[in-house]
Specification:
Elements (H helix, E strand, L loop, with lengths): L3 E9 L5 E9 L11 E7 L2 E8 L7 H4 L9 H5 L6 H16 L5 H29 L3 H22 L8 E2 L2 E2 L7 H24 L2 H7 L7 H6 L5 H4 L7 H4 L20 H25 L19 E8 L4 E8 L7 E5 L1 H6 L2 H5 L4 H11 L3 H5 L1
Helix pairs in contact: 3-4, 4-5, 4-11, 4-14, 5-6, 6-11, 11-14
Length: about 375
């Protein structure tokens, strides 16, 4: 691992004896930081005594840019936030706009949104599990998981012509209706994906080496998860039974039967395996949504392209692959939002690095980062 030594100094240890403290700079360009994040690590030998998470290297001012775009023009900017979860980033923003402008979304569009959001959740979790496995030298799982992600990307490309930034979910519905035969391809994927999940579970999470690298590392207690504002698999891995789809339900999620996987120990192993188990539930939700989906329009008919809500504010949130993704919009009656603020679950979860890294070795730092699944486009905004 390529590291830069910042300084070396002598300090006093807990036993009163002098010790050599090494301050090491990890990142911001190292691949195991899972993005352009930087960690300034204080080491006693190989053990971390302090870790400072430094962010801001990817800051693009998206929240400020929203003030100079119409409500519809903001949608492509949301693609660039959680760039491995663009579908539900679109959706979170659109829900806030629809609440603000009192737009009622057609029922078919709601089902389509659920389908693409759950497919995006699987794709995001596959990237998270695969890249975190690569951090522990499990390159085979990386290849298997990215192959599963590629199958979803191909379906999205067939749906809207894009592979990463989709601009598909729009205020009032979705950009295009489903192509003919597309749902059949999706059902074929969910059937095959379950078998792939079974294989990955045995191959990696049942592997003694993976268990040795993940179990007992970066333990986050249930009360600490709540106190630090963690959400998503990070919180559920610590036993926090909270999922917005189930406990503060939105869209048509109340019509589906699914479970919320939770962990017991709150360590890196539980967080990673929680993501894998969520993929099973997403497959179930997708299949139920396809079975129940009605005919009808895929967007509000006759809606003007220039949305001008009355002056006021609105907040809405959804369950992204990283947790509670919220959007707060203030309107002043013009065609452009006066203020836009995103509540990033990745940002909140990343705040745990200084707490979770202390006491572990430097080689465990990449496991800590991978278990939190950060996406720095959403962290820095």
């Amino acid at each position: 691992m390529s590291l830069q030594i910042e300084e070396q100094r002598q300090t006093e240890g807990p036993d009163g004896r002098p010790r050599q403290e090494l301050v090491v700079n990890v990142g911001p360009s190292h691949p195991s930081t899972h993005g352009v994040g930087r960690v300034v690590v204080h080491l006693d030998g190989e053990v971390i005594t302090k870790a400072d998470m430094i962010i801001g290297y990817l800051h693009r001012g998206i929240e400020k840019m929203c003030e100079n775009r119409t409500y519809l023009q903001v949608v492509p900017l949301t693609d660039r936030l959680d760039y491995v979860g663009s579908m539900y980033s679109n959706w979170a923003y659109c829900r806030a706009v629809e609440r603000l402008a009192a737009i009622r979304v057609p029922e078919r569009a709601e089902y389509i949104r659920v389908i693409v959001a759950e497919m995006q959740r699987i794709a995001s979790h596959m990237m998270s599990i695969g890249s975190a496995a690569a951090d522990t030298a499990a390159a085979t799982l990386f290849i298997y998981s990215f192959d599963e992600r590629e199958r979803i990307i191909e379906l999205f490309e067939e749906l809207c012509g894009a592979r990463l930034t989709y601009n598909y979910v729009r205020p009032g519905g979705v950009a295009f209706d489903l192509p003919e035969g597309w749902t059949d391809s999706v059902l074929e994927f969910t059937k095959a994906h379950r078998k792939a999940l079974d294989l990955m579970d045995r191959m990696y999470f049942g592997n003694v080496i993976a268990r040795g690298r993940l179990k007992g590392v970066a333990v986050l207690g249930r009360d600490d998860a709540v106190a630090w504002g963690a959400s998503g698999p990070v919180a559920r891995g610590s036993g926090v039974d909270w999922d917005l789809r189930k406990h503060d339900s939105y869209s048509v999620y109340p019509r589906f039967d699914f479970n919320v996987p939770i962990g017991e120990n709150g360590d890196a192993y539980d967080r990673a395996r929680t993501r894998l188990l969520e993929c099973y539930e997403s497959c179930s939700i997708i299949e139920q949504a396809i079975e129940q989906m009605p005919t009808g329009p895929h967007k509000v008919e006759g809606q003007p392209r220039l949305i001008m809500p009355r002056a006021g504010d609105a907040y809405d949130h959804i369950e992204s692959a990283r947790g509670s993704l919220g959007v707060y919009i203030v309107a002043d009656g013009s065609p452009r939002p006066y203020r836009v603020k995103f509540r990033s679950p990745a940002f909140c979860n990343l705040a745990l690095v200084p707490k979770l890294a202390v006491g572990h070795t430097l080689s465990d730092l990449v496991v800590v980062l991978g278990s939190l699944d950060p996406v720095f486009g959403e962290v820095d905004r």
